[in-house]
Model the fold of this input.
Amino acid sequence: MSCLKCLKYTMCVVNFIFFICGTAIFGFGIYLSMTSRYASLIPSLKSMTFANSLFIIGIFVTCVSFLGFLGALKENRCLLISFFTLLFLLMMAELVVACLLLMYEREMNTYVEKELKASVDTARYKTSNSTDLQEWDAIQRTFECCGVNSSNDWNGRVPDSCCKSSSSPCKIEEPTSYWKDGCYDKLKTWFDSNLLSTGIGVICVCSIEVLGMCFSMTLFCHISKSGLGYK
Done:
């Protein structure tokens, strides 16, 4: 009985921590959506900006952790099974996405490159205050790259963020003053170099999800055997 109480309060504490984290992510997403002027680099997914992604993640984490916290605290079978179901569906979705990325890696690379070129074509004719161009300026300055594959992607309208030196403006007749590498290769290299840390993070998240499902199902079975019902 003491072990089940320990399990119950452990679930409460862990889910409360995740609830606070989810609320913080949710609030940060709202803050970015109100203050950030950056747009999505994928034209076909225009609404999926970094701020909106944080907003959605924050809502999901907050709702799921609230179900787990309240279900464990009140020993409510309905809330516990809802918590278990949501975690299970999340794991299945993660597994499906991982399999699709492995199976269609080449098609995904082609799709991303095509979308980035479409984004450059859109940003090329925008003013310096536009969100599309500001997003590319941030990427090109951070990764020291220019265009998708080279500065030629800008068709003569190369932004100042492609300049190697910030002290003097770039000149079209001096292409050597631009960053040589394209942003697509730089971004791909960056993702490949962080693949190990990303994998470790995914494994940790999956482990937490499995533990959450095990804890909730253990409490659910105990409540069922105790005849407490849907309190």
In short: The helical segments are 2-35, 50-74, 77-103, 105-123, 131-143, 183-193, 195-226. The mean pLDDT is 83. The longest helix spans residues 2-35.
